[in-house]
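Researcher: Here's my situation. A collaborator sent me these components and asked whether they could plausibly form a single complex. I don't have experimental data yet, so a predicted model of the whole assembly would be a useful starting point for our discussion.
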Amino acid sequence: MPRIKFIVDHLGKYKLALMILLAVTIIYAGINLIPNLVISFLIDNVISGRPVSDGFSRFLNDILGGTTYIREHIWLVAILLVVIYFLVALFMNIRQRLQGDVAENLCENIRDHLYSHIQLLPYAYHVKIKTGELIQKCTSDVDMVRRFFSGQFAEIFYILSTAIIALLVLFNINRELSLWVCISLVIILIYSYIFFKQVQKQFRLSDEQEAVLSTNIQESLSGIRVIKAFNRELYEIDKFIKENEKYKGVTLKMIHYLGYYWSSSYMIALFGILLIVVMGVFEVRAGDLSVGDFTIFISYQTTVLYAMRQLGRILSDFGRLSVSIDRLKEILEEKAEDIHTGLTPSLRGDIYFDHVSFKYDDDPKMVLDDIDLKIKENETVAIIGPTGSGKSTLVSLLSRLYEPTSGHIYIGGTDIKEISKAHLRDNVGIVLQEPFLFSRSIMDNLKIIDEKVSDDAVYNATKIASVHDVINGFERGYRTLVGEKGVTLSGGQKQRIAIARTILKGSPILIFDDSLSAVDTETDAAIRAAIKTLNGKMTTIIITQRVASSKDCDRIIVIEDGKITQTGTHEELCAQDGLYKRINEIQSQIVTGEEVR
Amino acid sequence: MAEKFEEKDFTNEGFNLKVWLKLAKLFKPFSKFLLIQIGLQIVMAVIDVLIPYLNKEAIDTYTNADSSIESLKMFVIFYVLIILSTALFNLLYFHFCGKTEMGFGGELREKCFRKLQSLSFSYFDTTPTGWLMARMTGDISRLAEVIAWSLTDMAWGIPVMIFSAVVMFSTNVNMAIIVLIVAPILAVLSYYFQIRQLKAYREVRKANSKITNDFNEGINGAKTTKTLALEDHNFKEFKHDTKEMKNVSVKAVRLGATFRPLVQFISSIAIAAIIWIGGDLANSGVIGFGTLMMFIQYAQQFYEPVRMIAAILSEFQMAQASGERIIYLLESEPTIVDTPEVIEKYGTIIKPKPENYEKIKGDIEFKDVTFSYIQGETVLEHFDLKIKAGQTIALVGETGSGKSTIVNLICRFYEPTEGELLIDGVDYRERSIGWLHSNLGYVLQAPHLFSGSIMENVRFSRLDATDEEVYEACKLVNAHDFIMSFEDGYDTDVGEGGSRLSTGQKQLISFARAVLADPAIFILDEATSSIDTETEKIIQYAIENIMKEKTSFVVAHRLSTIVNADRILVIKNGKIIEDGKHSELLKQHGYYYRLYTNQFNEDLKAQLFNEQVTY
């Protein structure tokens, strides 16, 4: 039931279209059976001259003016058939168009919902998930739903109505024989369902191995430098051949299973037909069945038997559809962030971490422990400390990527809990250590903040980030396309473009989360100097591991194991025993060429 | 290197005999399966025409009370035999199709993979991974599938058509003409629609991969999106793409929704015509009642193979494009190859003769080397450099100065455009690529790990290393402790591309990997940029120990890594502008001095020059 609700919810205004689709399909199934009846009427009653017995023949007889008249004007029947065939074609056309409309609109809605929902899922979710898996769900599971509604869904109703209508006609003609037809239908349906379910397991194995094989190719392409440098081509080829053979093996097995399935179900269907042929022969001999009716039996049984085999297949596919829907629902049931509700005050003023502690939900270890820290408006503060000491967590709290476990954070006197997240993040510009650039031109990456921003403003920002000349050095300048995940740019170039992007936001609070790590020292210094010229206008927090980056900050905060252990200027901290002095020594002792052992 | 990869256009419509001939050559080992398949298809085609005939036999003969029950028994036995044999043939057909598809596809994939492994560096610098992936997966599968299944489906369709046509013509020429006259119309119509449909599907696939890419970016870039509050902006763009996807899909569906009913309707006109003319003929006793029935049935059945063959032909056109791309890949030649004499002695990458590899001492000399990635844009010009075995050389300079090019040349990822590069006094082109690469230890800035365990990743560089040797290497680079802190220790799965480890951890592991190789030449390309200061310090000594006897190159931004190098080379615009030990270079008060003091002692610099740092 919740699965049906999921579909209905995403149908939007196409709920009615789905209903119409069902009606059209049933009508289509009905008229599709008529031509055979007309042909049998022609042969049995008109040409062979048998008396008109059943209702439908009588009806035809009446509207076309009686058998004798029809015999003289057979074109009447031909025209009637053309009209019926036209209707068949028309309904077939409507059915397929509706199917397409319903399936494509349904999937558009699901995709939109998924995307916007995923964008709004909290930071913690994105840190934890396996991206490949999530993308897989968003694409192939949606496609599973699309495939079902673009064909199979209406097909089920088509097959069922065809079967019911055909059986009604047949029961009208001969009850005993119809019963046997029924039995043959049930057998083929159950057989197909069970057997195809088995085949599917093999399908899955083949799909999985195909994925393994693709990953293998993908990795040896992206790691080609390493492979060549270590002369491991042969090793890779061997590894590949092993996976390739495995793939060939499971897929061949799958094809064999398919072969068993098709040939055995074909065999069963043919035996069913043979049964009716033999029984029909005796019925006709006994005078209980006319030859024309006998042909109807055979042609209807043939049609419905193959349809039933198809139905068995579709039904056995149901499991996969349910799994897909469940997986999509699971994503959509994750709680999303509300980024728009809340206050939108001016975010100038002091930042105050009021006894803030933080731990991750699934880990008892305190990442930040009772941080009490005031940062004055327009101050430049460096945060330094070992990997994993909580530096990055501290600034993530500031833009509410995470919420403190206890304590409060105030900006300009307002508790940031009260502030809308979108507004807060617009005003707290963080440059990540591994920033993401979108696969479009560099200019578009920069203007993503605001399409209306002028080129000059962009150049200004890139000059501050010391990347303007680098970009102009590219053949296509600002129109250079950023490759997948920015691979054509070096790490440092990416970081600097990301810095320019954040500067363009003009946020009053600017945070560098170790985002100069891949930039060479000279450029690092140049960027910091340029930002200093803006400094009157913004509060800057620099997370770093380089003393060079921290020493000219107004204040340096040393964090170790989630606690602030030292605060002060470079000179003050160098005079104290502690981590800062140690780092400083390691990094600058060598200035005189001494070796530290 | 940043030039955009231009895909060769393979969408030309005409029949390309050359490609098919080349493919036929590749296909040759599987042609016997194909022949069996065709034979089976022809037999099955006969049976498919026979079964309606048997049903008619039953109606015509055995419903007659005169016929004997004995002969009915014989009929039933014959029918049963037909059923059993068709089931058997079907099974065999699947078996051989599978063999052809998997065999041919598998072999193509293997050939392409081998080719990829043998291609040179420059190929991968200019060809996007995505393009190659599409060749290796989609194109090969499509080609194998079309050849294995569709080709033999034709072997069913054509006999069915011929057989039916012969029966019809021998029965009644006029009526046969009516049935056949519609066939060419349907064939042309089907072909036309199929081509348009395939094109429409190509559009759908394009839109679909755009959406996949959107999801990819939306998910991988989620953190950036959040910190920049871009959610609404991204969603607006995404909505545009899904709308586009819907529009092209609906267009493709509409095409199909017009095509099938149209075909059905046109063939039904033939049926109506048969009934009209045949009905009159039957009435006047010219033809029998059974003949009319048969013609109606043929009119209903005849067009299915017509439609099918049209569909297969258009499928072949798609397969041809795939085939062209595969051939194009298979015919790509590596730009860096060993001469026949070298191969004679040292073997190839695929068949190496490591017993003939000379030990490397480690003297390296650039002799008047000129190099350019793209013609006309020289990166190095008349470059000379002599390095003694066992020395540690640090390369310093701005991005794009030529540091990485020097490294690329030493590794023979690229070869000098002019001049030569000597290793131990011999031009390295006189020895094999495999010889050089099996003596290299290479650590990259962006470390690349393969999915699998940490153990497997470290051992990658020396496959016969014992567990103890792996531990040793990891201890040396200070990776052992963090590895042991994982629940599964060395068996920890690193995830695809090492995604489950931090950048620093990945760097340490790729370090251990290079250490384990125990190479004669060591190359560290920005290898320590993501390791924190204290860890870096610890490895520093390890690195220096390892490097002591080896010729080593260190490319670094962080100068602490290079202070103890035997020689520091400052590279600018492809030229060495400063060369010497740390202390010597400091004394020169040149570029290195400026770079160094910037990083470590801006105060000192300010004092000495009494000025603000200017840039």
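Model: Some features of this prediction you could bring to your collaborator: Residues 195 and 314 of chain B are 6 Å apart (CA to CA). The longest helix of chain B spans residues 231-283.
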